[in-house]
Write a structure and sequence with these properties.
Number of domains: 2
CATH topology of the largest domain: YefM-like fold
Number of helices: 4
Strand order of the largest sheet: 1-2-3
Distance between the termini: 41 Å
CATH superfamily of the largest domain: YefM-like domain
Helix content: 55-70%
Shape: elongated
């Protein structure tokens, strides 16, 4: 994850925002004598919120982690999407 300081962010604000959105990569902004912050696209933020929500329930988290492990082990099955 890229890190830049507050002054750089301020000088190149629009370009920084564009980079975050285009690359779908958060940027850490350091601040003098204060805690750093992270700039993240709205799309990525919503995805993180959704993941956190789905993982709150222990049974659901286990099911999702099991499914991820199966995919990583090559046990996934491609299926045709049926729209009705």
């Amino acid at each position: 994850m890229k890190t830049i300081n507050f002054s750089q962010t301020r000088q190149h604000l629009a370009a920084t925002f564009d980079k975050v959105v285009e690359d779908s990569t958060p940027i850490i902004v350091t601040r003098q004598n204060k805690e750093a912050v992270v700039i993240v696209s709205l799309k990525d933020f919503r995805a993180m919120e959704e993941t956190a929500y789905l993982m709150q329930n222990e049974a659901n988290a286990k099911r999702l982690n099991r499914a991820i492990a199966q995919l990583e082990d090559g046990e996934g099955k491609e299926r045709e999407l049926v729209l009705s």
